């Protein structure tokens, strides 16, 4: 792809004179922050967008690609970030969709199943051809997407952030499959902003920033730090700098908290801990060991079975989410898109959703647009939310900027306790760095912070103290995260090691 | 009461059920195709009405039932294409566009009838044609079954044969599979090179065709004239049948038969000493009750699914 420029009709310059070259049979990672232009570049290659100028060459020959159909005919396949599958169809039906084998006037389902089985075996991508897509796990759905491209004869496979939805185990399986594909002679373009994965899987790496190609380097010459610098355009602090903890009084006190789902599955078992003013208490653990339930019970979104939850000595157990918030708790929910923001509402509205009924936003039962606008403008500036103005729907923002809206709202409510659940999930490096800064700033200002993150290195470097959850219990509390290794914490996460009750209580 | 039971358990009654099911089943199958194509067509009522009207008027003019049928179907497909154009090309909300078509059909048909005949109520003063009734040899002589299966209107047979045809189309042909893919995940269909708009035009055109057959049956089979608002909500009952039938052709047919039975009952009971107004409510009350039952069953299933899911989780 030579000298590709793309200007969207609304004037946004997505790609500026980008030249990108992939060799046959390599795994080529394309990295860059959200909005750097990598997705647009790939959409041009796949015929979903037309370049404003520039030329694409395939095996040395200039080609024009105007539709995905033409891209497929040229042997280019794309696996989209949000899967393009029909949920009620079987896996085989999805794989042959649009190019079904026929027998007479009818679609030959048996041939579709046979073709699926053959491809799956050939490339080591295990799927159940006759299973309904809706009923299979995410990892298998992704394999279906890859098989779909292979069925259409793809030699070049574009994978758009394929690991964003996968667990570590599934990511591992995917990488094995990718290597197998390359061994079979395919070429893979791997879009990501997870640098660790990029370093693990790719042969060469191209970095984009602000619609330009910064450069292409061999993996041998790259490390995470260099890539981050190329992506952001300045020195990035992957390590978090924070002054020594100034621990204040207990803000949140949780004792013997128990919670069970409606079906009677115990999700929290005698959970006890404190969070002190001016500290970050991290909760580490493999996802699904009670972290989500713990956060939602404290935030008032689920009612506990029994136990004590006190904020500044006053019980907040059983209060409504609004009651909990008014008591001084802010909550950055883990599922940003459904619980963090209202996608169709404006940035302005999202920023006051927890306080719209109070002064100064409402007076005499009427809302005051001027105040709402002023509030939004101030927060957009303070939290560096990249948006032209506050009337835009939140859904039009990138993941990182959406999260900034959530953080701006939560921190501007001046909480005593901030619960941050997966605060940097799906946001790019620049925004991640910003989130970390904000959390540390709030901590330094005396806010008590409960941080839950599936990213072990994040939770370990941000937290002052670290609790580990396994199977609904707190199995360890480390009074100091300095000197702690991931391997050590990992043993507790897996449940291999457990601190004694006395040890845990000492570190409450 | 005894009289009522005698009415229900008779061959005449079952034959009547098939007769009154026809103008529900045909639009329901059409609506099913549109629904699965992701373009819910609530203009079935209006399409039926215009088709019924066009059919009768052309058959009066030409004295040919076949030209009447052709005109009715053409009119129905045209109305569906108008809806498709408003929704797919002009990006109008499909519900609003469909409401407009229903209102237009209600007023427009009677306006045209008045212009041409001077009558604001119906065309019954004029001689129009009727689609043929078919006596099936051999079968017509079998006791019990004969009077039910044989001697129905041609379009009644078409309706029940259409159930099988629609089934094969939706699940076995490439066009049908593409249509369902579009209805369920438009982007997925687009990404594999399926022409999404063409599929949705096809879905709406087919729904117009089937609804039109239902309309023509009403005015040129069930009776032999066009009357103001003669569809009487059948286009909407058809929509209920689609959902009640779990959005499958066979289910839709069964649901349509349930509604047909309710209507046949109201017709038969009208001959007995039951208040007329009460009897006329039966098909509509049956629709409401059916939808409530449907909602409850769905909820029970959802709860059962959840419980099963949690159990597997717990293990």
Q: What this model shows, in words?
A:
Chain A is α/β, with parallel strands linked by helices and 508 residues long. Chain A folds into 3 domains: 2-232, 3-Layer(aba) Sandwich (Rossmann fold); 237-328 and 415-508, P-loop containing nucleotide triphosphate hydrolases (Rossmann fold, 3-Layer(aba) Sandwich); 343-413, no CATH class. Helix content of chain A is 33%, strand content 24%. Chain A contains 18 helices and 24 strands. In chain A, strand 19 (362-363) and strand 20 (366-367) form a beta hairpin. Chain A is globular. The model of chain A has no long low-confidence stretch (mean pLDDT 87). Chain B has 315 residues and is mainly α. Chain B is globular, with a radius of gyration of 21 Å. The N and C termini of chain B lie far apart (55 Å). In chain B, strands 1-2 form a two-stranded antiparallel sheet. Chain B has 14 helices and 2 strands. Chain B has a single domain (2-314), classed as ABC transporter involved in vitamin B12 uptake, BtuC (Orthogonal Bundle). At the A-B interface, helix 2 and strand 8 of A face helix 8, helix 9 and helix 14 of B.
Which CATH C-level class of chain B is it?
Mainly Alpha
Total beta strands of chain B:
2
For the biggest β-sheet of chain A, the strand order reads: 6-9-10-3-11-12
Query: What would you call the shape of chain B?
Result: globular
Largest contact between protein chains? A-B, 30 and 24 residues
Strand order of the largest sheet of chain B: 1-2
Our Rg estimate of chain A from Cα atoms comes to: 25 Å
Global outline of chain A: globular
**The biggest beta sheet of chain A, please?**
6 strands, mixed
- Helix/strand-derived class of chain A? alpha/beta
